[in-house]
Backbone:
């Protein structure tokens, strides 16, 4: 096998599916994830996130807004992920909703918006281990 140092193998623990319906907020979240040393994959809503997760086996982290239109919000997305893809770690965020910890699926971190880049980095690093 020939080794290509220009394109080292991607560490799947560094892939983060960013789920956000607001384009400007999604772009900011993608930039923050990338600045933290992770590789973002974007989804505009929970339905698109499910399609991506069904098609890919390398995503280990999901960072999702809770308040999204379309019938499937972030908490329902998190429950579906925990049910269908148990190894995936989850970070939920919202500026409007603050779910009780006992209502969140296991191994889910909640970040209240606005969150600092340092808090996001801490959550990503905690779950990527």
Residues:
């Amino acid at each position: 096998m020939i080794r290509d140092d220009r394109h080292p193998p991607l560490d799947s623990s560094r892939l983060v599916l960013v789920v956000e319906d607001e384009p400007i907020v999604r772009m900011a979240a993608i930039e923050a994830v990338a600045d933290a040393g992770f590789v973002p994959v974007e989804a505009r809503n929970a339905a698109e996130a499910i399609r991506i997760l069904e098609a890919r086996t390398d995503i280990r982290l999901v960072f999702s807004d809770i308040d999204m239109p379309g019938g499937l919000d972030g908490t329902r997305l998190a429950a579906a992920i925990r049910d269908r893809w148990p190894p995936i770690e989850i970070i939920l965020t919202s500026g409007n909703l603050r779910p009780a910890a006992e209502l969140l699926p296991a191994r889910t971190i909640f970040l209240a918006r606005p969150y600092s880049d340092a808090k996001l980095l801490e959550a990503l690093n905690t779950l990527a281990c």
